[in-house]
Amino acid sequence: MRIDILTLFPGMFSGPLTESILKRAQEKGLLSLHLHNIRDYTSDKHHTTDDAPYGGGGGMVMLVEPLVRAVEDVRGADQGAPVILLTPQGRVFTQRVAYELAAHERLILICGRYEGVDERVRQLVVTDEISIGDYVLTGGELAAMVIVDAVTRLIPGVLGARWGAEEDSHAMGLLEYPHYTRPPVFRGLAVPDVLLSGDHQAVARWRRREAIRRTWERRPDLLLTADLSEEERWFLAELAEAEAQRRGAS
Ligand code: ADE
Fold first, then answer.
1. Ligand 1 centroid, distance to 131 Cα (angstroms)
2. Fewer CB atoms near the end CB (10 Å): N or C, the chain?
3. Nearest C-alpha to atom 2 of ligand 1 is from which residue?
């Protein structure tokens, strides 16, 4: 996959994208990242990238011309790649959106700054707008890094065969089950017996139930759309009943 990032601050990307899994994905040729400085697409002596808003008010607005020129130059003849503006006004990024983006061969990400970008950038070149959550960052750079990270680990071959993304929190529509490794007992806290039993079916059943329990406790909203078997729905009903009894008793 190829990802082009248009930003005023390419230096912000050097740490997160050049370590660990993202680094290896690039070394293996599975991810090709290209940073483009929007300032390089200005046409005036001062390399201006923003100006005061028409109509007054505070803040600065990113100019339409450098952004449109940058997108057109980077995109070249490849009209098919989504051009995604990172903005708190966009649709909210979720694991489902990560899968959707991972299906593309190429993405172009625009990092907005200041109070926003001139509306005509949206009209002329943007095909999608994404927010990474309901809060306001100083710019789209961190959001772009979050998206690159979440999408890259879904590219086949990036995580390796033994550590797939299929059982991630959210991939199954549930949060993940609890994990344990050595030692079997630490400060009196023991690893659940079933995980040491060698019974793979029992382990799988325990994990699935614990994933449901954890989702019920922390993110019950996810259970509305989770794919549960009849038996798992009964388990959920038991959890709900136990909770109701606890509340009634207190
Ligand atoms: N730019 C500023 N805040 C943002 C957010 N929450 N998501 C994406 N881009 C942003």
1. 5
2. C
3. 137
Residues 6+ apart with CB under 8 A from 20: none
Does residue 138 line the site of ligand 1, with CB under 6 A? no
Q: What is the pLDDT of residue 221?
A: 95
Calculate the CA dihedral of residues 207, 212, 217, 222 and round it to 10 degrees. 130
Domain co-membership, 147 together with 189: no
Per-residue pLDDT tens for 95-138?
Answer: 999 999 999 999 999 999 878 999 999 999 999 999 999 999 99
Catalytic residues: 88, 115, 153, 168
pLDDT range class, residue 78, cuts 50, 70, 90: confident
Which residue did the predictor score with more confidence, 234 or 164?
234
Q: Which domain holds residue 208?
A: 185-249
Query: Is residue 131 lining ligand 1, measured as CB closer than 6 Å?
Result: yes
Specify the number of domains making up the chain: 2
Of 161, 102, 156, 93, the closest CA to residue 128 belongs to 93
Nearest residue to 79 via CA among 115, 112, 125, 122: 125
In a domain, 164, yes or no: no
- CATH number assigned to the domain comprising residue 201: 1.10.1270.20
Asked whether residue 167 is assigned to any structural domain, the reply reads: no
Q: Rounded to two decimals, what is the model's pTM?
A: 0.91
Same-domain check for residues 22 and 146: yes
The pLDDT assigned to 161 comes to: 65
